[in-house]
Amino acid sequence: MCGIIGYIGKKEAQPILIKGLERLEYRGYDSLGICLQKNNKLHILKKKGRVEDFKRLPLLANIQGNLGIGHTRWATHGVPSQLNAHPHTDCHQNIAIVHNGIIENYQLLKNVLIKEGHKIVSQTDSEIIVHLIEKFYHGDLEEAVLKTVNLLEGTFGLAIMHKDKNNIIAVRRGSPLAIGIGRGEMFLASDVSAMLEHTRQVVYLKDNQMAVIRRNSFQIKNLDGQKAEKEIKMIKWNLDQIEKSGYKHFMEKEIFEQPETIKDLLRGKIKNNTIKLSLNIEPERIKRIIITACGTSWHAALVGKYFIEHFARIPVVVDYASEFRYRNPIINEGDLVVGISQSGETADTLEAIREAKKKGAATLGIINVVGSTISQAVDSGIFIHAGPEIGVASTKAFTAQLTSLLLFALYLAQGNNLKIEKALILELKQLPNQIKESLANHKEIKALAKQFYKSKGFFFLARGVNTPIALEGALKLKEISYIPAEGYPAGEMKHGPIALIDKDFPTLFLAPRSATLNKIISNMQEIKARKGETIIVTNDPKRLKRLSHSVVEVPLTSEWISPIINTMPVQLLAYYIADLKGCNIDKPRNLAKSVTVE
Ligand code: F6R
Fold first, then answer.
1. Pocket of ligand 1 contains residue 595 by CB under 6 Å
2. Would you say residue 146 has pLDDT above 80?
3. 127, 271, 521, 526: which is deepest, by most CB within 10 A?
């Protein structure tokens, strides 16, 4: 998730690019850069940090021109730094590119380019693209770009410029790009918000299309060389809306992004029914796993325990990071300590990892932000690639953590020669579609929110691998709507909490088909007998309809996939209830996105 902007026209490009980058900053904000063309030379400025600091750089005065590209980065390969920031250039600073996406086969291509004498200076996957263009360039930039993209595996939105050419070339496969049409000027951006103040006429590039953009015209063709139609769209949104891509809140946007984030996460990780993770660990030497995390990430850890113990048969302990370091934890040979953190900056989790290392444990991080402090502290890492999460309440990072943990459990099982059902691998590949289907219930859940938003409290109950999702549902609801909510294993209710049940204290059950479905049905009866209202989320609606007026059907999956699917309705319910209550959803009171204090 990076931001791309481009301009070609009569105006000075620099302020247009910088304003565009400001609007795109939510897509990534660890480093940025611009490249402008003047007098047949490329002028580049890059910096680690935010646009705000970039604007104050005195060197900006030297960067001028009427044609340029810019980029704001969300690191995937290589830490956030000036060197890894885009634009990247070829060996002779004749060509510059900016890239959004991930090049899966970059290592292979990089090795070849280095052997051929190219000087690759960054740790990014993106830089190899510009060296490939350089390799194929003999006067025809379009041809060189076409030859290059044919070699790339993965996703890309690309903007390319040459010191001697009066055009910008854009290519799309998987990562969004749109051309903005002005009068005697053209724009290019990964998100129309970046050019909305200049034009409302845009053409969205489709996958596997390339555009050659000049000041007064542009051509689009498919990567197979066929000319493509230009479909001009008028943008009706105002600036404020479009920053959230038409969603009312970032949280809502991030909930609905989940089919895409999981698709991105899975890309390249399943080949020939085998899980591919490049980890610096030996599964056969792991005797015990300790997972440590906070808040929502801790709930992911609890699901991870079910996954790992079931598939890899390795015992797992889950610990609150804030408790772990202060209780003199016992670390034995063969222990692996896993830290889960969206931000990679949570002080409690960081300190827990440091404590584990001090005691001699091997460490692994499951992290969203590349280059974050925890990602640098661990021996090995899985990046969940969920992109920037702006809403304070974690949503898309949580399901990306769950999916990563399932992949990790299967990877460990593979390493220990344990059998993995082919059907499960097939289901994993279908996960983005299943999530989409689960989100399709949003209108129904909005109606339930209307019915229940005045409740004085809420229970979330489940059994087995879905129990942590009940805890997560309760956390989501309380943190953004301020309604007291508790999550429990359904069997625990009768040991005390059931005392709270009355007609204004509803219970949401997560009840997928499983060996314990009959047990959870008994728990539903116990609530009903005490006049408690129930909402049932299930993939077996026929069986459960008679037990509640409020049944939400989710797609039928294996029990091991169901926690990811069941997360959608609980996130949506919390979101719609908080919205009806008029709460500040993206910035709930007393909370911060990244908790860097203990
Ligand atoms: C709740 C939420 C928090 C975080 C917690 C850990 O919606 O977002 O509970 O999960 O503060 O943050 P990370 O994952 O960044 O370590």
1. yes
2. yes
3. 127
pLDDT in tens, 239-265: 655 567 789 999 999 999 999 999 989
* Domain shared by 94 and 194, yes or no: yes
Ligand 1 probe mutation, 250, 255, 292, 297, most atoms within 8 A of CB: 297
Centre a 10 Å sphere on the Cβ of residue 359 and count the other Cβ atoms it contains.
15
Q: Are 304 and 409 in contact (CB under 8 A)?
A: yes
Domain count, the chain: 3
Q: What is the pTM of this model?
A: 0.79
The answer to whether residues 407 and 515 belong to one domain is no
Q: What is the bridge-based pairing of β-strands 288-293 and 335-341?
A: parallel
Same domain, 453 and 321: no
* Radius of gyration, alpha carbons of the chain: 25
pLDDT at 485 over 90: yes
395 lines ligand 1 (CB under 6 A): no
Query: Is 294 considered catalytic here?
Result: no
Residue 1 predicted with pLDDT over 70: no
- Here the CATH number for the domain that contains residue 288 is 3.40.50.10490
Query: Cβ(310)–Cβ(288) under 8 Å?
Result: no
Report the chain's terminal Cα–Cα distance, integer Å: 30
Q: Residue 45's beta-bridge partner residues? A: 34
Weakest-pLDDT range from 68-77, 108-117, 316-325: 68-77
